[in-house]
Queue: 2 jobs
Job 1
Amino acid sequence: MSNNISSKWQSYSPYILSLLRIFAALVFMQPGAMKLFGWPAPLPNGITISLFSQMGLAGVLEVFGGALLLVGLFTRPVAFILSGEMAVAYFQGHFSHGFWTVVNHGEPAVLLCFIWLFISAAGAGPWSIDAMRRK
């Protein structure tokens, strides 16, 4: 009986992959939207980000790259690029504050880096424009 449950649960893995991609993209887009648009909340102390800066580029990648991942279009290359962005964000913004992510507050950057790396290898899953284009 447990083997039946195991195989049934395993059969859902492509759909759970799509859910992981969709919800990670929604989480990922929020800091980008804050950087570019001050939404859903303004940046601390009312600072604004120049579009032609490293933070501006990060905002563009997060909003527009996140939107592509949300719908599952060009998933593998976009996820690979965004994984690299998160690695850069971690090493530039967090690693110098200590090795442990709980100390340097780098948990989101590390997790998203490896989620996007996994998605770049695994693909978008069945609920995606990439999957519709293959049919």
Job 2
Amino acid sequence: MISFAGRVVVLLAVYLLVLTSLDPGDIAIGTLLSIAIVAASRPEARVPAGGWLPWTVALLGTLASTGREVIIGTVRTARFALGGKAQPDFVEIPRDGRSERAVALWGLLTGEAPDEYPVDVDEGRDVLVVHVLDASDPAAIRARHVRTRERWQGRVVE
């Protein structure tokens, strides 16, 4: 049986062949469409709590929030590379009962920004450990991660 990723790749390839294009925008749209089609066509696919529309809005919000963090993180990293001051360190973020899937999503999205890198999940202390380029205000970093989870990520993956 072909895996989820394999099905996405096959659908994406068909989409790009039909368009006869390798434009990055076409690849991005094709990838999103392929993921949606494969996810919706799985026999075990279930309607998210609240329905598809709120889930889709939350997914788009998660992607926009991540894009924003990538831009901000890039600026912070460039500033540091050009001689700016920073306090690199580890910050612990409360896990708050996140499922394994929610932790995986958090790690993937957190790792997209160049100034933050997920390091560990300490199950004994129920915290997520992230290395940040500037940990001068760990409470603000924790609050930002909690806010993002409550607003977007928590509605995408339970």
